[in-house]
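Example record used in the benchmark description.
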Amino acid sequence: QVQLVESGGGLVQPGGSLRLSCAASQSIFKIYTVGWYRQAPGKQRELVGTITRSSITNYADSVKGRFTISRDNAKNTVYLQMNTVKTEDTAVYYCNIQGRMGDPLAAWGQGTLVTVSS
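Model output (structure tokens):
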């Protein structure tokens, strides 16, 4: 079964930037749409954005214009560039591959914690 490992989280000040990485144990990102998700304390996990096999991206309204998803198939890695972060971006961030209905297919990784605070 494919394993997903998120990294790159940390403490960042409001208005700052951070780049998260999602690495897969197999060469699957060139096959599937990949989604970045996040879960804030006390809230449900939500979809932040997606990138298709053709590198078409889509974003939640809350991050549109601030976050960018990209992929490097050779490295089996998908990135989430977070710019102009806000305190409400504080969450554990996860990645996953998506099925045809947008449902996450792989087991969830441990995620990476992003804390936006001054």
